[in-house]
Amino acid sequence: MKTSKRKSLTWLLSVLALVAVVAPACGSDNNSSKAATGSRSSTTVAAEKPTCAPGTLAAAGSTFVKNIAQQWIADYQTACSGSTINYQSIGSGKGVQAFIDGTAQLAASDAVLKADEEAAARTKGGEVVHIPWSAGGIALEYHLAGVKNLKLTPDEVAGIWAGTITKWNDSKLTADNPGLPDKPIQVVSREDGSGTSKAFTAYMAAVAPTIWTKGSDKQPAWPVGQKATGSDGVTGLVKQNDGSITYSEVSYAKGAGLDIAKVKNASGAFVEPTPDAVSAAIASATVPADLKVAVDYKAANPAAYPISTVTWAISFVHPRDPAVGQLIRDFILYAAGPGQNAAAGLDYAPLPAELAAKAKAAALTIGA
Predict the structure, then answer these.
(1) Hey, is 140 helix, strand or coil?
(2) How far is the C-alpha of 267 from the C-alpha of 299, rounded, in Å?
(3) Which of 156, 215, 237, 241 is deepest in the core (most CB within 10 A)?
(4) In the chain, what percentage of residues exceed pLDDT 90?
(5) 245 and 138 in contact (C-beta within 8 Å)?
């Protein structure tokens, strides 16, 4: 085990050197092919060969992170022929429950564990660690014939989901979007327990608390609209229905050919969820010692996309099977290291260098 730790530390130092040189940029089934083929060549993967722990890992959770996770898995398994990582994209809520139940050895979630969830996990496997490994924008994707440059303010976003704005030609919306059609707004939200829902409702509660009064939750009681399961489910429903709007990770909207609204940030700028705009938002996030990052939805940076989020890999510090613990550690080191190079090409944002370094340091504690 000591030899393995020395190898991991050696690899980490080489990755940190790479990060110092290369500064970071500050689903539907259609998305799967993009994630599988990726934005990098196999020669690049070989040049960044990670420490390879053999074995099989069962992971489950976030649909938000699915597309980049598929890229990481493909690249890692290309470099590490003795490693198999199975990822079930079933939503953060179900992934967390699978982790607690012991059917998943690694959970991916867009929300940190609640106190009762963490307590339940501890009774099963001891200390739990949250490791940030990806960041992205929650896109407001919409289907509205003839409208290609929709702009929404925080109050309007909250009003649409609270049910106080029900028509596209509401005077609040037409102030920044003249000529919107006289159509009802068909709101689509996640039905399953979702970390994306948790982050999206946290945003509304932070920026428009008098309009969105239901707080932040993975599975809120939505006041209006239709519901579907998973990011691919809500995206598919919007694609089928003119006049509809939902929220999801950016790559789902792009994969489905849907339009994405610009959202007004705290500086008054209307911003799209590009990788650079998400990085600008994440740069001002609060990063406590336990790495349960808190994004500032009112970031002052005029370039920041306000509805941005971090996603986490959640693991036991001391998995029962030491071999599985080594594979979890090495895979997360890869994802938070060279794997970040795939982010922008898949419509995610690379982690800021300082946060990535903390994530890798936390990964090294697994199985130590």
Answers:
(1) strand
(2) 8
(3) 156
(4) 85
(5) no
State whether residue 47 is helix, strand or coil.
helix
Unique residue bearing structure tokens 């959202």: 263
Phi, psi of 214 (to 5 degrees): -95, 5
CA angle (33, 56, 50) in 5-degree steps: 70
pTM as predicted: 0.85
Specify which residues 189 forms β-bridges with.
227
Mean pLDDT over each residue of the chain, to the nearest integer? 89
d(CA 131, CA 133): 6
- Write phi, then psi, for 323 (nearest 5 degrees): -65, -40
Provide the 8-state DSSP code for 244: E
Residue 41 has pLDDT above 50, yes or no: no
- Concatenated DSSP letters of 199-239: HHHHHHHHH-TTT--S---SS---SSSEEESHHHHHHHHHH
Query: What domains are defined for the chain?
Result: 2-135+312-363 (3.40.190.10), 138-282 (3.40.190.10)
Does residue 145 have a pLDDT over 60? yes
Read off the pLDDT of residues 10-31 as tens digits, 9 standing for 90 and up: 444 333 333 333 333 333 333 4
